Amino acid sequence: MDLVFVVDGSGSICDSDTNFHYGTDVTCDNWNFILKFMEDFVSDMDIGLASTRVGLVTFASSAFLGWDLKR
């Protein structure tokens, strides 16, 4: 199986996070929730080139390849 996460990496994901303060925090709770979701989602999968391959694309004003299906 090929699984690619396409995740909003823009600042807007932090807009509803009352604990986040622009300019002082590196990340926000909402971003940590996204990371935790991805971790939990794949935790029981057999990850590897010959089994489940996982990729990540984040986007804001442009897209960024976090990792492709070959890593």
Question: Short description, anyone?
Answer:
The protein has 71 residues and is an alpha+beta fold. It has 1 helix and 3 strands; from the N terminus they run E-H-E-E.
Keywords summarizing the entry:
single chain, 71 residues, alpha+beta, Rossmann fold, three-stranded mixed beta sheet, 27% strand
Could you describe the 3D structure shown?
The chain has 71 residues and is α+β, with helices and mostly antiparallel strands. The chain has one domain: Rossmann fold (3-Layer(aba) Sandwich), CATH 3.40.50. The chain has one helix at residues 29-42; strands at residues 2-8, 53-59, 63-67. Strands 1-2-3 form a 3-stranded mixed β-sheet, with no helix packed on it. Strand 1 (2-8), helix 1 and strand 2 form a beta-alpha-beta unit. The longest helix has 14 residues, at 29-42. The mean pLDDT is 87.
Shape: elongated
**Structural class, from secondary structure content?**
alpha+beta
Separation of the first and last Cα atoms: 14 Å
Round the Cα radius of gyration to an integer and report it.
14 Å
Can you name the CATH architecture?
3-Layer(aba) Sandwich
Strand order of the largest sheet: 1-2-3
> Largest sheet at a glance?
3 strands, mixed
Fraction in helix: 10-25%
CATH homologous group name: von Willebrand factor, type A domain
By CATH reckoning, the class would read: Alpha Beta
Task: Work out the helix count.
Answer: 1
- Which series of helices and strands comes N to C? EHEE
Strand content: 25-35%
Number of strands: 3
The tally of structural domains comes to 1
Write the CATH fold name. Answer: Rossmann fold
Assembly type of the shown chains? single chain
Integer average pLDDT = 87
